[in-house]
Amino acid sequence: MDTLEAVSAFSALSQPTRLDVFRLLVKAGGTGMLAGDIGEALNVRQNTMSANLSVLLNAGLVRNERQGRTIRYFADMEGMRGLLAFLMEDCCGGQADMCKPVIDQIACDG
């Protein structure tokens, strides 16, 4: 990930509804969510949700799959991984033990 891609991702996440959408999709995991269900869960109108999902999609933070007449959205974990890697590049001056608490905090239990 380069600086412009990182800025695009941060810009997308800097709006409260989009941040809520992304966090909801992270929580949904591999099953993702239908666009309408996302809007319903967050009490956001369909046209507003569509615009927010488009911003997140263009920023590389979500991906989608068409399923007949509906679209299922997923958190793009590769995009998030790229953003986190960008932030932590050259972390702690090469002292990996200093980064371990951060990595432990964001690692999935499992």
TrEMBL record:
HTH arsR-type domain sequence ranges: 1-95
Taxonomy, superkingdom: Bacteria
UniProt KW keywords: DNA-binding, Transcription, Transcription regulation
InterPro entries with a match to the protein in the record: ArsR-like_HTH (IPR011991), HTH_ArsR_DNA-bd_dom (IPR001845), Metal_resp_trans_reg (IPR051011), WH-like_DNA-bd_sf (IPR036388), WH_DNA-bd_sf (IPR036390)
Protein name: Transcriptional regulator
